[in-house]
Prior knowledge:
Elements: H1 2-8, H2 23-35, E1 40-44, H3 65-69, E2 73-79, E3 82-87, H4 96-111, E4 126-132, H5 136-144, E5 148-156, E6 165-174
Parallel strand pairs: 3-4
Antiparallel strand pairs: 1-2, 2-3, 4-6, 5-6
Helix pairs in contact: 1-2
Amino acid sequence: MPGIHKHKSDPRIVHWKKPDTTLAESRAWVETRLASPKCWNFVVHFLPPEYKDQDPHPSWLVPSEEDRKSVLGLCGVHSAPEIGYAFHPSVWGKGIATEAIRGLIQAYWEAFPIGHPVLEGDEKTYLMALTDIWNRSSERVLEKNGFEFWKEQEKEDMRDDNKRMTILHVWRLWKPGHPVAE
């Protein structure tokens, strides 16, 4: 939990909302995500060098105490079909987010080949993501993974208590084999 809190309390990383100020806030965020049927989230760490050329193993999903302190990023489906991600500035521009999102997309469609079970209709056939209109780096991560700009959306700005609205870009990626994706 300290690694997640360190990540969620850094305003450079969590720029779309107020950063967490206490460990309890970060813990509550994790507990909310774990309890939601629409969430499917991951903490991103570097793979230890000794595992570099080996096939993935479920035991790797349980990070060591050292890894828990060195979170590179968070990514996942935080409200299906919407994905989200946030990475530490030390790995920005190094392809880590692009690789993590690529893995997330593949794992998502392997786990939910006919779409996430809580979704209905067209929502079962795509993933989507939101970006601030000024965050070109995040948009590039999505483009490199096949997402296409879909539309603009007005949403409440969660960075302050003034209930201002902000414009976000909405991106969509169709499920592999979907007629629109072809």
